Amino acid sequence: MAQRTGTGKYEQLLERCKRLEAIPTAVAHPCEESALAGAIEAGAKGLIAPILVGPVGKIREIAKKHGIDLGKSEVVDAPHSHAAAAKAVELVRQGRAELLMKGSLHTDELLGAVVAKETGLRTGRRITHVFIMDVPTYHKVLVVTDAAINIAPTLEDKVDICQNAIDLCISLGVERPKVAILGAVETVTSKMPATLDAAALCKMAERGQIAGAVLDGPLAFDNAISKEAARIKGIKSEVAGDPDILLAPDLEAGNILAKQLSFLANADSAGLVLGARVPIILTSRADSVRSKIASCAVAVLAAHARRRPRAAK
After folding, report:
1. Do the bridges between strand 268-274 and strand 280-282 make them parallel or antiparallel, or are there none, so unpaired?
2. Three-state DSSP class for 312?
3. Which domains does the chain have, with CATH numbers?
């Protein structure tokens, strides 16, 4: 993917984080150069206070080989990736960490520890994923959900997918997020179940079952993202042309959309898992340094938003 310069959207998130305390973060199995360097760089920027969980000898060996200065970062020994995932989750349960970050282990392995019935981090909410995207051709940060976890979400699943994304946007400073519920068409028809879900979600928002945002849908992508396209089709909508969140009908559609934005529109994407006790930072080896740092910044803002209700008591 072509290199690009910052558009200012991610930079604004980082600027907000400068005024905040670094968040203790359990980094599960950072046993590869980019995973270890990403966590240490986020620590150097004052975003997180990394607790590195994995084989101590291997972590120190990788750091020495690649010139990564671990500084005062705490290293907690775990013999392999499975144990590292379990130990990182345990650190969160003990209150020693307020964020969880994926290192060089498989996502399924980390999430397996998160959803473990007796020892995990489940809440009443469904676990969902968001891409927080900086699209050069769009005027603000755009959240795409769910593109990585829920394959064929039911209506009830979409309620949690939607609410998790809304709560995240509010923590990022959006007072009343706008949610575009995507479909292939903007009319409701029983032949396309996604349009029925969209209509139901809008009514549920009216009745307070989804809170804190304005929803509209179904909206085809052109109508969701372009006021002019919506005007031409006679759609009057507060959301059209200005959404903060794009709610995909299923994982395949969401995943294709996010990757199209990345590889055709040259967008940067930060990844986060929501719905657990703490936000979970998901990065991959293919992510740019900018994207990895942005993922940490978004998680830090979300973690501080969780602290505020406790401080108010």
Report:
1. antiparallel
2. helix
3. 123-275 (3.40.718.10)
